[in-house]
Amino acid sequence: MAARRAARAVWPVVLLALCTPAASIQVSVGSDEGPASATASYAFDHPTDVLHGATSESLYVDDVDSSAMNLINGKARDDVRKAEEARKAAEAKKAEEAKKAEEARKAEESRKAAEAKKAEEARKAAEAKKAKDAKKAEEAKKAEDARRALEAEIKAAAADAQAKAKAEAAAQAEAASKAAADAAGRGAAAVGDPHLQNVHGERFDLLQSGKHVLVHIPRGELPEKALLRVEAEAHRLGGQCADMYFQELNITGAWVEAAKADGLSLVEAKQTSGLFFQARAGQHDDSHWLKLGRVELKVVHGRTEQGLLYLNFYVKHLGLSGFAVGGLLGEDDHTEAMTPSEACVERLSLIQSANGNDHRALASVAEASLD
């Protein structure tokens, strides 16, 4: 027990000795029985780094328990070791934090590089798409220009072909007229003026058999919505290239229906809802003008010297209708109707008497006027 007390008393002395020059210190050492009963004298030999330049004085410590010194030295070493470990731990922590910071910096740089790469790729992709779209647009424009150019060429070719066809038809008609004139000079049976005359005063021969629209008001309107529509059926009688004769006339339209509602009953046959005339029905001496809407028309039966029955048709006041007039007697093109077939170029003549009711006419007549 006395030794432990001596050790505790020595510890402050040692600390003091480390901070002072070499000296001799006397310390009272107590015992368990009471107050200090002895005095210990301690001599300290300073380490070389402490005693450098010191005096020759010596420190002496007498009667020190070796276990106390060992305790002091062990604690000092333990403190030094702990301090070293703390330093190393701090350095390791600092190194770890520096490593983590470096890794974080590299990760951020990698992230920014990846984003920059993606942005660059997106930019290049956008530029490539833009270039591709521009190329497609240019190709589409070229294709459209080529298509329009081709359409223009086709239209021009079609117009040229149509003009040539009309010129050829006119030439054929003129040749047919000349041939008919020659035939008339040689004593042909059918002679006289052209048998159709339209609202412009143009005269022409009808050289195609079949059904033909003579009048259609308004021009271009659907048949079921027309105000007045006159359709005639023509046939060649007496031979392959004999004169043309109207055999049937069908007159329909809203004006006809309105006239019938007012009491008009001149219907020779009930094949249609309008007015229907047939050449084979025989001659009538009481042919008269019928007023339909703002125009007037007349159908006249005729007979040739050979006994062939036919119909003549007349219409007037078309200028008062208030509409454009279609049909062969109106403003429609009559080039095809006046073009003879290749097998027949003989001119067909329709003769009209001065009063428009000559039953001895050699061919049918159809005339129209604006007045």
Describe the structure.
By secondary structure, this protein is an alpha+beta fold. The protein is 40% helix and 20% strand. It has helices at residues 2-19, 48-51, 66-185, 254-261; strands spanning 24-31, 34-43, 196-197, 203-204, 210-217, 228-236, 244-252, 275-278, 290-292, 295-303, 309-316, 366-368.
Order of helices and strands: HEEHHEEEEEHEEEEE
Helix content: 40-55%
For the biggest sheet, the summary is: 6 strands, mixed
Q: So what's the overall shape?
A: rod-shaped
Tally of strands = 12
Low-confidence stretches: 29-42, 48-63, 179-193, 267-271, 346-361
Q: Order of strands in the sheet with the most strands?
A: 4-3-12-11-10-9
- CA gyration radius, whole angstroms: 68 Å
Derived from helix and strand composition plus strand pairing, the structural class reads alpha+beta
* Distance between the amino and carboxyl termini: 161 Å
For the residues shown, what is the average pLDDT? 75
Strand content: 15-25%
Total number of helices: 4
